């Protein structure tokens, strides 16, 4: 199973009450999960037009320190949360009924590790600085491929800029802080196990906070892009256009992620939004001026999705994608005489395997290949001769 599963349509969580910021409310998300065995959840918060006071909300892992944030009119933000404890719950606070919480996907082990209580980074400022991710248990940095970061914008302000990138990248983008709540980034690590951040003024609890939510192991199938790729999208509103990333991601990719980067001076929060092909998600979601915002989307078989865009000074940059990962290999005790076939697969489709005692078949996959063939004398089928009556495909 993939580490990140994105739903085609968001699932609105109807149980969210208006708490008036008086208390954290524990929300059970099991009814909204396709697979309740997931390690964590991908969430989206949206806000409708506001005619009242500033809109504030918070979401946190159960038992962690929560941060209240602002979100602007008709805006959205997407971010991951780990399920901590026995249930599949998160804590939520908000001060207005026009704030909507939705489940948009799942995060799965074993190739992703998430912190129970993510810690905020204490950072210098004024340049690009190297950061080594905090690790969990006995993990070592040589096994880590990418960091999962969450940037929290505590207060609406444009009095500083910030950015994240892989060490060694030519990406120089750092944009202002805006009232966009939380936002998710997946940033690859360099050979030395580092990524980089930039902030023109101190990350602080009064403005913005950088938090490491977790990381992705090299055993997984998430691919990060050192220098993000600009999709150079055309204007597309009110109807959705086609986002085609076939020239950027692998042919097996199931999800693509990156950032919306805005240099727009408009205070009207121009629309810019991704959704899956055929999705009914509301795409009329805007962005603050001169900002950046992370988003991911499920891809169809043609590596396409849909988008809206209202201002050419906003564009989507691809930073990562994922291909369907291989399940854990079956336990194979060695060659044995028997009558069954056991397949340890190759990414793509058909059978492959090694003969073992028993009669069951076990399948798996390898990239882009149909049946894997090694010629066997006297047969039209792929195989390697093994004592016994079972066939071995490889």
What does the model show?
The C terminus is likely disordered. A hairpin with an 8-residue loop joins strand 12 and strand 13. Helices cover 0% and strands 40% of the residues. The strands form seven sheets. A four-stranded antiparallel sheet has the order 1-8-3-6, with no helix packed on it. Among the domains are: 107 residues, Jelly Rolls (Sandwich); 68 residues, no CATH class. The chain has 394 residues and is mainly beta.
Query: Helix count, per DSSP?
Result: 0
What would the CATH topology of the domain at 1-107 be?
A: Jelly Rolls
CATH class of the domain at 1-107: Mainly Beta
* Helix-strand sequence: EEEEEEEEEEEEEEEEEEEEEEEEE
How would a crystallographer describe the biggest sheet? 4 strands, antiparallel
**Strand fraction band?**
35-45%
Distance between the termini: 22 Å
* Mean of pLDDT: 79
What topology, given as strand order, has the largest sheet? 1-8-3-6
